[in-house]
Amino acid sequence: MHLQRALMQNRKMDLWVELVQTVSGLLLVGFLWTHMIFVASILLGIEAFNTLAKFMEDFGLLPVAVIFIILAGAAHVGTVLRRIPGRWQEQKIVWRHAKTIKHHDTWSWLFQAVTGSAMLILIIIHVFVVVYAGINTELSADRVHSWMLWFYIVLLLLAEYHASVGLYRTLVKWTNMKRRSLKTVLLIITILTVGLGLISLAVFYSHGGSI
Amino acid sequence: MNPRQLTFQIFRYNPETPEQQPSMQNYVVEEEPGMTLFIALNRIRETLDPTLRFDFVCRAGICGSCGMLINGTPTLACRTLTKNLPENITLMPLPVFQLLGDLSVDTGTWFREMSIRTESWVHSNKEIDPRAPEEPMDNETALSIYEAERCIECGCCIGGCATANLKPDFIGAAGVNRVARFMLDPRDQRSEQEYFDVVGSEDGIFGCIGLMACDDNCPVGIPLQGQLAYVRKKMASAGWKRK
Ligand code: HEM
Ligand code: SF4
Ligand code: SF4
Ligand code: FES
What we know:
Chain A: It is found in: Membrane. Chain A: InterPro entries: Fum_red_B_TM (IPR004224), SQR/QFR_C/D (IPR034804), SuccDH_FuR_B_TM-su (IPR000701). By secondary structure, chain A is an all-alpha fold. Chain A has nine helices and no strands. Chain B is elongated, with a radius of gyration of 21 Å. The N and C termini of chain B lie far apart (about 70 Å). One iron/sulfur cluster (SF4) binds near residues 163, 210 and 212 of chain B.
């Protein structure tokens, strides 16, 4: 025991931070999947998408969603940052360690940290664009029908990967579920959600420029 | 069929001669039927290089002194058959523990410190009469304690854990499993708050990020995922109630 540690001992803190990290992560997964289903309403036609967008606007759900993502995102990033090896020396240790022991779940954690950090920037851009430019079929389709298509594809892949690994991590930490079956189920969900996202993007792309 | 010629790439470093850089040295050994790494390493020391340092005691998977990274995987050398390995075999010492030289590390000091920090003894102020018959314990409890007690302190779960590699004070899966053993023991009178003081922190269960390298690599197959989840839930509930 050292002086600073003895003085700092607020043991409940470590539990709270861990809980905030996990709960905010789970909320974000819930948000992500709801969001992807809403976006997929474009598959039912332009009408359906516009109706949903208007519904969200009329009931003031858009600001609610934006505030939610900012709060949950800030809570998640704030708590999770403590786990990302910050010093150069630590970075060297984790990457070397992962390469040495060739262990699948260790790699997936590193990718979780990398996809998370990349998403932090992309999500901020995404939220800004949506808030300042707005949402309706025309705007969205034109956005997708441009260089921003790549932005959306990358964000989709990063987010689904991160969500799926995060869910896996949470379940593995708190339950004794069989990890092999968990991986299979989550892989199927990820393929489905990525597929749904890509199809939605394709439909937007085909509408782009024509409406 | 001709026996295989195995090429061992072995980590060499002596902390007492720090001017010599760590390096990987190659040794070629002819494979024999039923050869374990214990046999192969002794063959190298007897016929090729008497200076090579490594540890074995029981050579039967009981003492836990021969843990090392075999082609990267932390496991026991005495229980690893060369026939299950490719022709090129890389051997490195377990990380985290103090390196004594080549493949030899000091796991003992680490485990002793962990035992003291987790207070690994039955806490009880009950008078014990050494001549009275022992109090019986129901079979299920005894078996669940025994499950955790099987740990041979080989350190594979510690060397393989990225968290333990980064944070020297992290007690790792072996430490958490140790605490689980006492939590399950009805003779230990510690309250859940007392356990929380021991493991309810970033150096204990809340430092674990769920990589499961421990669970994947424990050579005696202790269900570490379950042990970690058990302690995590118990400590979350204790922390929740804590004033
Ligand atoms: C925006 C920037 C983000 C960053 C920098 C980030 C980073 C991380 C990191 C490093 C972890 C591992 C934490 C650990 O193992 O202790 C993690 C866990 C997790 N993340 Fe994210 N993430 C971000 C966004 C998201 C989003 C948008 C979602 C939802 C789709 C999400 C869901 C999760 C979940 C469920 C976990 C598991 C929580 C746990 O293990 O306790 N994260 N995140
Ligand atoms: S689950 Fe991962 S972080 Fe936790 S003790 Fe095991 S290897 Fe270490
Ligand atoms: S829990 Fe398993 S891997 Fe860890 S020290 Fe004990 S026997 Fe070795
Ligand atoms: S020598 Fe005892 S466990 Fe390998």
